[in-house]
Amino acid sequence: LADPWKYSALAAYMFLLILLGFPVNFLTLYVTIQHKKLRTPLNYILLNLAFSNHFMVFGGFPVTMYSSMNGYFV
């Protein structure tokens, strides 16, 4: 379907998203839980986004990265 280097580039991009996504989302959750002043309705929406993004970082991105390294869906 595509050149092998494109699959490698996608796998590298997914790896970068995993490396950057986990700490940013973890810090968002941690800081909001530690500081009660940040518990506002808008921040609850942001917490929900950070929490659901953890599922993507741990579930979706590794599957996409592994599939890209193989060149087909595994």
TrEMBL record:
Record keyword Transmembrane present: yes
GO cellular component, one term: membrane
GO molecular function term, any single one: G protein-coupled receptor activity
Subcellular location(s) per record: Membrane
Origin: domain of life: Eukaryota
Keywords, alphabetical: G-protein coupled receptor, Membrane, Receptor, Transducer, Transmembrane, Transmembrane helix
InterPro entries for this protein: GPCR_opsins, GPCR_Rhodpsn_7TM
Residue ranges of every copy of the G-protein coupled receptors family 1 profile domain listed in the record: 24-74
Membrane disposition: Multi-pass membrane protein
Transmembrane segments: 12-33, 45-66
Signal peptide start and end residues: none
Chief place of localization: membrane
Record protein name field: Rhodopsin
